[in-house]
Amino acid sequence: MKSAGKGFWFGSGMALALAAGVSAAPIRVVIFNTCGPSSFVHPIAQQTPLLKTMFKDPAAANLQFPLIPSEGFTVDSVGVATNGTTADGHNLILALPTHDVVICANNTDFSKLFTTTDQLAFQAWIAKKGHGVVAFHGASDDNGIWLWKMSFFGAKFNGHSSGKASVLADSTPKNVSDPDFQMINAGLTKLTTVDDEWYSFQANPRDLPGLHVLSTLDEGTYTVGNKMGDHPISWFRAPPDSGRFYYTGAGHDWKYFKDTYWLRRQVYNAVLWASGYVPPVIAVEAKPVAGQSDFSSQGTRSSLTIRINRDGKHTVQVRGLDGRGVAMEKGVGMREYTFGNLEPNSVYAVLVTANGKTSRSLVKLR
After folding, report:
1. Residue 296 clears pLDDT 60, i.e. is over it
2. Could you tell me the sign of the dihedral formed by the alpha carbons of 79, 84, 90, 96, in that order?
3. Which of 15, 47, 114, 283 is the most exposed place for a label (fewest CB within 10 A)?
4. Is the pTM of this model over 0.90?
């Protein structure tokens, strides 16, 4: 038996067990697309429509098997796509009560866009559970003075260089075993090559309290502006009683969202996670999905892949119709298991146990 259940990357099997997301209301997202006065302006005007499309129609963004909340997303934007003023920051503050997640989209000199009063209002909003901030790239390039923001984001820009670099999923055991880490990295390989403008930071955020690194850069694969050695590039915070935060140093240009699956998928997952969305209890689909190859034969044997889209502990069993146990795996959080060396043209029972309940489905291999 080959199992891919120890991580979040996709295995080679094709049979799919996919649960649809469940939510009582749409996840309300607002994109803040303004840069500080007299700061460098990233191509926000082009990236905002791409971000909106990604959440309104994940399939159009070519996301493979994403979790999709049943009520979907609403996506608004606030601010001018150029240098702004504190009036733009105040408009974001006015929008916060009707939104769950704020995307800080390349907002260089973010701190300068808010008065002291509005800074405190922003802090109060994110302090409430169920709220989230998803930030990328220029949002850490800030010459303003807002000490809370610098601490909350976890790092400050300290130079950059462009090129193709190897991006690795963090391998620290405390991160890999964390369900939040697994949800934000769901659907991503452990190693990928990404073309972008890569930030270095004034200090390594890895050891900050409550911060979990998602992805790092291999500095040996590109020309580094300011070497860090251990070079985190994406991370998150998940305080138990307040809002959630995600940041990635990637995403300099709209074309990187268009061309880079890793970036699109991690940001999509992060918005879903930041909203407090909880994946549903697993439901196994026995029938192939139209247009997809759900079952594949490998030589004279077949394989079955089952994806678990939920939090918490679970057990997955594959049994013959005579009750004979063929394979079993146990895990926590979102997982993918590939069971190989199965008989083609045979029917198996798939049992998934979670929260004290067991679902049973029959799957026919070909």
Report:
1. no
2. positive
3. 283
4. no
